[in-house]
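Write out the 3D structure for:
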Amino acid sequence: MKQEVTRQRKPEGWSLDEVDYKTEAQKEVITGDDGKIEGKNLSPPNEGVFIHGLYLEGSQWHKQEKRFEEQVGKDLFFNFPILHVTAESTAVVTDKVPGSKKNDNKDRENTHYWCPVYKYPKRNDRYLIFRAWLKADGAAGALKLSHQVKPPQNWKLKGVALLCSKE
């Protein structure tokens, strides 16, 4: 997928060595085996892919705010919404403009959790597919919002991960 996006962006000077995954959770969850959303048509993205059928372990997902929330109940796995995966350039920006890539990455570390995506519940490097930046609301967001919003470190300590299979 990173290769395809890099090829599309070749005129902009993108190199495969300077590309990383960019992820965004959608609001829709596909629960059936047929891969369809009842009453909705989902158009394909211009760039990247949609992934569905992932399970979230160690946390629940707030669909409207697109962020992690504490587990309620005793379910171990939760259906995760459709995940849009594409690529972004990680090339170093030379100008010191506020809002540049360097500042964006620092902000993302405070507000997003670098969630691992595993093939199976057995967690090791052999079954790690990739990592996705998912909204967790960092310390700055926790002060502004309710006490239920947790920093990214909370989800790391709880071992939150996305899985392709529950078995």
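Confidence is low (pLDDT under 50) at residues 96-100, 138-147.
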